[in-house]
Design goal:
Helix content of chain A: 55-70%
Oligomer: homodimer
Largest sheet of chain A: 3 strands, antiparallel
Order of helices and strands of chain A: HEHHEEHHHHHHHH
Number of domains of chain A: 2
CATH superfamily of the largest domain in chain A: GntR ligand-binding domain-like
CATH class of the largest domain in chain A: Mainly Alpha
Largest interface: A-B, 47 and 47 residues
Strand order of the largest sheet of chain A: 1-3-2
Strand content of chain A: under 5%
Number of strands of chain A: 3
Shape of chain A: elongated
Radius of gyration of chain A: 20 Å
Structural class of chain A: mainly alpha
CATH topology of the largest domain in chain A: Four Helix Bundle (Hemerythrin (Met), subunit A)
Number of helices of chain A: 11
CATH architecture of the largest domain in chain A: Up-down Bundle
Low-confidence stretches of chain A: 194-200, 240-250
DNA sequence: GACCGAAAAATGTCTGACATTTACCCTGTC
DNA sequence: GACAGGGTAAATGTCAGACATTTTTCGGTC
């Protein structure tokens, strides 16, 4: 729609792509809607049309935009967005008001996928993988229940889950580790707002420890169950339980 | 390394990106190696430097290349390639000699993921999803055992599995449907070379039918097991059984 | 009213120049 | 001889303007 409240620009094409992508992910333009024209964008941000084109190329590669000569640029449907693109995860991180649907879908995906990944990890983890897992878990323990270290705790949390994906030793699963940071950060931001008594942690630490132990023992079935319980926590936090089991008309 | 045997160019930036990507995926340049410079590429293909830049931007967005001002362009490690990018799947389709590692990783991923997707699908499929699944299965049946319709059979096969991902009703899983065409095509090309007696089909049709029936009945556990057996076939075709269960030193 | 053509509007491409970053070599000094 | 310094070359990044191509729109003609 409009470009108001998007001030002048400083930085290269990547920075501009980031700004536009985050504005789009925040809902400034809706799917199906027309995106501003190259010349308008160039004029508004006081940059060359070439730079705008490079920035838009990044958004197009991420499946956010659809461009055709003569017709203009339009926002693609949410279902066409490349949520698995690492670039997209970068853009999603720290977004103030991401589309709630996106967060729900990301968490629902992890809820179904992460048990399998943990099972694979239990069967394939080597010494390096275990070292990464243990280092991340140690970091989580040391930074737990210290309000000032919340940011570091999140980073260790991300590193822990990322290490599970890495330990699967599969190129495709490993690529999905990029999904972790945005989804975990969204959870933290969400669960901190409605101030809960226990701080939102639950027995998170203990359940992570169960995953680690199962992977260390090479027990895939136990690892899958433990991973399911870790994510059961987060699912409950967002009232996601209904996301599974609901079935449309038959 | 070199640009020999890559003739002159015709088409836009997308076409050039496709040519370069397919050459790269075919192994013409190895990870860590230096990619040709913009001006050399422009001279070789008789196009403008701008067009080359746009093409390289696409390869960079797919994680294939890493570009830094002053240092040049280098091929990234295989682990950094964005295998989940739909663009990458397009480039992979029909590649004469794809890196065997990539095919193996894709199939290993499906072997672990597709049972979960089928389970989700059993719990979430609606009437439209079932119609798509049944249409695809009908197409598979009608084109089976007809040598002239091999290409169409593959398309129905892709459509069947894609419908499973769609039926999961999760944005992330649905994105992964793009992986199906390249992996299925690679399987077909591979299993047709060493001429096997039964034509490589096995009881593929029957096992697909089992998946369809389980999803129609809403039986997630059965759907997962059936999906595992469908992929067990393909795994055996490529001697992939060893991909799971092998564990490095402890 | 239907068909055709010209003009407008948007993205795609070309060209040449300059900016910026990085690596390399060459020099001077201790 | 080793090392710090600057200067030059090389590669990618950005800018500016023009032209090409595609799509839509509007008008005119029959």
């Amino acid at each position: 729609m409009s470009l108001e409240s998007l001030g002048p620009h400083q930085g290269g094409a990547d920075a501009l792509a980031r700004r536009l992508a985050r504005a789009l992910l925040g809902g400034r333009w809706l799917p199906g809607e027309a995106f501003p024209k190259e010349l308008d964008l160039a004029a508004h941000f006081t940059v060359s049309r070439n730079l705008v084109r490079n920035a838009l190329a990044a958004l197009t590669a991420a499946g956010l935009l659809e461009r055709t000569a003569g017709r203009g640029t339009r926002v693609r449907e949410v279902g066409d967005w490349h949520l698995l693109d690492p670039q997209m995860s970068d853009w999603l991180v720290g977004l103030e008001r991401p589309q709630p649907q996106l967060v729900r879908e990301l968490l629902a995906f992890r809820h179904s996928a992460e048990p399998v990944v943990a099972e694979l990890a239990a069967g394939a983890a080597d010494a390096d993988d275990l070292a990464r897992l243990e280092a991340a878990f140690r970091g989580m323990s040391e930074t737990a229940e210290a309000p000032g270290q919340a940011a570091q705790h999140v980073e260790y949390d991300v590193a822990f889950h990322e290490a599970i994906y890495e330990a699967s030793h599969n190129l495709v699963w490993r690529q999905m580790g990029h999904l972790l940071r945005p989804s975990i950060l969204a959870l933290v931001q969400h669960s901190q707002r409605p101030a809960r008594g226990d701080g939102g942690l639950g027995d998170s630490l203990g359940r992570h420890a169960a995953v680690l132990a199962a992977i260390r023992d090479g027990d895939g079935t136990r690892a899958a169950r433990a991973a399911r319980e870790v994510l059961g926590l987060t699912a409950r936090d967002l009232a996601l339980d209904t996301a599974t089991g609901v079935r449309a008309d038959r």
